[in-house]
Design a protein that fits this description.
The chain is mostly helical and 214 residues long. The chain is built from four helices and no strands. The chain is elongated. The protein starts with 21 loop residues before the first helix and ends with a helix.
Length: 214
């Protein structure tokens, strides 16, 4: 049939793979095939063009530009944690002082939220982390089960291949023995025919021998 691949290798019963030079010869054949092969079809033409920036956010884009331009990284701004007084020119303005009070209240509220987050972490962090670890453990067990099933299926395929190839090897050996026996028998028949032809030729060339046989 057209396009049918005939597998003529039986690695479970074939011999000679470990002999010196076989491995090097196989690699040389592969390298020669790769050197002579010239692709005639673009196997990726059905895929869209590669978009390397599809996952870039504006922040990552700006960071890449900074690295490309070899600019230093911006230092951590601590301005929002500062409580500066009003400028020297606005020390007598109530609005400037009210702005400073609002800033200090915002800083106090921020610190209060941080303290609350720390308290929540002390109370719920360990149980949440334990549940997270238990989830990871369950996922690991599921993945290990799938891996074990795949390995078992692979092992069964290999055993099936080995069984089939072993049976096929025995059949090939029996057929080879029969072939050798038939070839030997044909050779014996051919040799006997040659001897008979030679004897008949001698009879034709020597009438006395022919008369003695009669």
């Amino acid at each position: 049939m057209a396009g049918e691949v005939v597998v003529d290798a039986l690695p479970y019963i074939d011999q000679g793979y470990d002999e010196p030079g076989v491995r090097e010869a196989a690699f040389a054949m592969v390298e020669e095939e790769c050197r002579r092969y010239r692709p005639t079809k673009n196997y990726l033409e059905h895929l869209p063009p590669l978009n390397v920036s599809s996952f870039e956010t504006p922040m990552i884009h700006n960071e890449f530009e900074r690295l490309q331009n070899r600019l230093p990284m911006d230092t951590l701004s601590m301005k929002r944690y500062e409580l500066p007084p009003p400028p020297s020119g606005k020390l007598n303005e109530v609005s400037a002082w009210l702005e400073c009070v609002d800033n200090s209240q915002a800083q106090l509220e921020h610190q209060a939220v941080r303290i609350l987050n720390l308290q929540l972490m002390l109370e719920y962090c360990c149980p949440a982390w334990q549940r997270y670890l238990q989830t990871l453990t369950d996922l690991e067990k599921i993945a290990s089960k799938k891996l074990a099933d795949l390995r078992q299926a692979l092992q069964e395929v290999n055993w099936q291949r080995k069984s089939l190839q072993t049976k096929g090897g025995d059949q090939l050996k029996n057929l080879e023995a029969k072939w050798v026996a038939l070839v030997s028998h044909n050779y014996e028949i051919e040799q006997a025919c040659c001897m008979a032809e030679e004897y008949l030729t001698q009879l034709k060339q020597n009438p006395l021998l022919q008369q003695s046989q009669q």
